[in-house]
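HUMAN: Quick job: go over this next protein and say how the chain folds.
***
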Amino acid sequence: MSEMVFTAVFIASSQKISGVLLSVTLRAASTGDALYQAERELMEHGYYNIEHLSVCIAEDDSFLGIKIIDNY
């Protein structure tokens, strides 16, 4: 299965702030894999009480610097 680019959105807390809205964009094989990878990355950066809000296939978003490029 080829990888796709997903955006996962969470609410989480850290030592400095609680209830922050976080968006993670990453390559993954499935939505479940994207959620797992994103949540693991947040935990590695000190976030806890992580609540999943959504996960979707990423779209171009120049404001966030996301540009989907398919090379065939």
In short: The first helix runs from residue 31 to 44.
